[in-house]
Fold:
Amino acid sequence: MHAVHRAALAAAAALAIPSGAGAGSTPTSPTATAISTATATPTPTATAAVAAAPGPAEPTDDPVLSRLLSESLAARPELKQAEAEAIAERERAPQAEALPDPVLSLGIQNDGFDGIQIGKMETSYYLIMLTQPLPWPGKRGLRADVSRLGASRVEAGLTRARLSAEADVRRAYLGLLLARDRLALLGRLELIWRQSAGVARARYETGEGAQSDVLRAQLEQNRLRQRRWSLEAEARAWTQTLNRLRGRPLEEEIATARSVRDLRLPALDAPGAGVADALARSPELAAARLGEAQAEKASALARRDRYPDFTVSAGLMPRGSLVPMWQATVGVTLPIWGRQASAAAEAKARATAGARGAEAVDQVVRLRAEERRLALATLLDALRLYREGLLVQSQATSESTLAQYRVGKVTFASVLEANAVLVADEDGYLQALADAQRLAIAAAEVSLDPAVVAGGGTGGASVPGAGAVRSAGGGAAPSGGGAAAPDASSSMNSM
Structure:
């Protein structure tokens, strides 16, 4: 139990917000700060075993993303709310440790009802008494420890809010880049279809082709217009999401000069490295360990409550012209009704529940880290296949099929199929790049959501726009759901 408490105190120290932070301060990347000196100093072993403070965000050489991140972290009301709640919770510890307020009693004792007898009768006097309740030694310290650990749990929630706020911006920015890249890809497809339509029209005018080929080409061009509207709406939705995250007018334009292809691919960590990093930085795990330590402190306090509390009173009784009297008393509570035993049993059960809860969170953190590593390894293999074979082969197949259609060696259906495979591979490559970035964002966020990768990176000619890294609880929800992804599944369907 003592080891758990020391570990939880280490987590509290790592997750504590700066003491000067206020509700209106600008949030920054959380760093480790020392917790109140009233708590115990963690041992090196316990410190290594507990969640440490998240490190600073990975630097980015994209000035647009850097600006969006700084503006969002400064403007998010959810962060200011979490900071204010953490500060408010910290102020509870001094209240819990303080002595109860003394009681001042004023009174009079008089003999008979014929008049004030003070100074005439020895038993008539004024009364001035001060009473101070005194808890049993150790109770105040335990109450303060319970309150401090509760405050540290709230600060772990603040760390989660900061991590998720940054991840919201990164996901939304990635979504905007992907939507604009797919619009550019759609422009390429439009050019291909104009060329195909021109060839079909030329063959029809010379009597070598069928009118249905011309009509089909025109049909595909009209479908492209419909898909463009859908992608443009998706890009606007991501722009609005970013503007909401940074407190700007929703329709304000955001200029981007980067492509998803320009983003650096995340590296595959050595086995176990991602798990160790997640265990060290997970706010949920830190909060669970703090909750376990808090429950143990509450259990110790419940056991200490079996001992009585005291009251000390001192009084002065002026008697007018007579010599004044004084009195001093000591009172003690009698814990005889069994309430303390039930409270101790309750606290012990909560401590057990806290330990099991921390164990469960530890397991989930490990699982999610391994899921992300496995998904990233699969994506990196798929991306290598795209670069080294699929993209080049599908481009060559499309050009060759169109050339053969010009001379009547293949049907127009072959042109349709070749064009569809080309764009599906191009779009699948973009989706796989985006999925890899989403996994990196989730790792930096230490997300507990499942790492479900869309099919774009795992199948050469899969349906474009099939989705993103989805989670059961919504990866961006903890900080307000600011970067909930627009549904891209139908944006370029059957391109």
